[in-house]
From TrEMBL:
GO MF annotation terms: 2-oxoglutarate-dependent dioxygenase activity
InterPro entries, alphabetized: Cupin_8 (IPR041667), JmjC_dom (IPR003347)
PROSITE patterns from the UniProt entry: JMJC
Listed name of the protein: Hspb associated protein 1
Subcellular location: Cytoplasm
Domain of life: Eukaryota
Organism phylogeny: Eukaryota, Metazoa, Chordata, Craniata, Vertebrata
SUPFAM superfamilies: Clavaminate synthase-like
Function per UniProt: May play a role in cellular stress response.
Ranges of biased composition (kind: Basic and acidic residues): 326-335
Keywords: Cytoplasm
Domain JmjC: 105-265
GO cellular component, one term: cytoplasm
Amino acid sequence: MAVKPFTSEEAKGILDHLQQPAVFLNMTSDWPVLLWTAEHLSSRLGDRLVRFRLGRKQKTSAPLFETQCSYVQARIAHFLCWTQGQTDVGPFSEYPYSEYWAYADYKYIAMLFEDQPSMFEDVKWSDFGFEGRNGSDSTVWIGTKGANTPCHMDTYGCNLVLQVQGRKRWHLFPPEDTTNLYPTRIPYEESSVFSLVHVQSPDLKRFPAFGAAQAYIVTLQPGQVLYVPRHWWHYVESVDPVTVSVNTWIELEVDDFARVSEAVTKMVVWAIKSAESEDNDDSWLNPTEEGSASHNENLQYLNLAVAACAQRPRGLCHGEMSSDVSDAHPVKRDSSGQLKSSDSHKNPPSFSVPFGPHLIAVCCQQENPVEDDEISSSRDDVSTSQNDDAPGSEGSPATSAALEQEKHACGTGLTPCGLCQSAAGTSKSSPGENKSKCTAISTNDLLACLVHPEIVGRVTELLLERHKNPL
């Protein structure tokens, strides 16, 4: 048996100190899950139906959210026949392979193989210091070339991702790029915040601040494990005809202030989107967010979160504010994603992350571009990649218009108003004429402002003050 480059204790220590995405090599060669190709999964699941999400392949400047996709229930055997141009493709027959990609995403292994629990042991996250964590704590993702997950940020934890079959390209952005990514809560998912920008084909006229975003891009090869830190944004796309990956989501301790903020957001979103309105009939609840929540249920959850936060000393309640999405103050990173020396007081250099042949930092693409043809096909060699449609390929970073855009409410996901269009050079109107040219305010526009992180943060503070000193 090959000796792993890091013991489980060493790997856990590395994860505890990593501040940027990184790829582990040569840690999974003895994991049985590496045999989980789509063909193998098809043989194990047989006639079991799996839900696939389908989207059109055409190029667009807008992200395709999960609420806008088509869905089918099919056997993996049908899926494989569909990718191979065969005729017995079951429910896929209505979707020409030349026009659509398909993705079986978020499939919990514990549910998929509930009658085959021995398969849980094929996944060995204990090698990364998480004793007892295996396939029962993981999800499997099966897709075709072009299958993608819209750019989003997970609010509660970090991710470890093992690539099993084919390759996936990851576009990652640090937390301080939140403003540049135009966050939105529609579609709504409690544990995720989405970006309005299609990061591979951005509309820089509508979203000029994205030109200043720092893209960290890596193509993950089979056998490699990617670490995605908490609050790092990511857009993921399958590169090869068939891809399989396994993901485990590790929930980190969340400060009570952040829980109150999320409770406020949920209550506002559900209250406004549940109201009857002519422009309020869109699909706003992400398919991964199951069930419905009543106003009373949301209010009860908010009260519990406020009470828990109020019971702690103020310093503890706010102690992790810097890790919350509401804190998007600028910080400086080097090309590998490490915080620069000006922030070193927050992260004492008592532990040196052992980057080298077995642990590769994902680098900032704008500082260290690598072309696609330089990607190694080796299972144990990782490299970054520059896609033709990668961020920054259609515009220069950090223009004055982009900086001006950040100052306006439109930067939070609204349709750009005349003032912002003028700042971006897309409007010939004088500033005095712009008021009458603003797009009419919609329900979603209002909601985008109400759940802006700064607004939610202030509301959270007021609620805690009111709880402590009731009127």
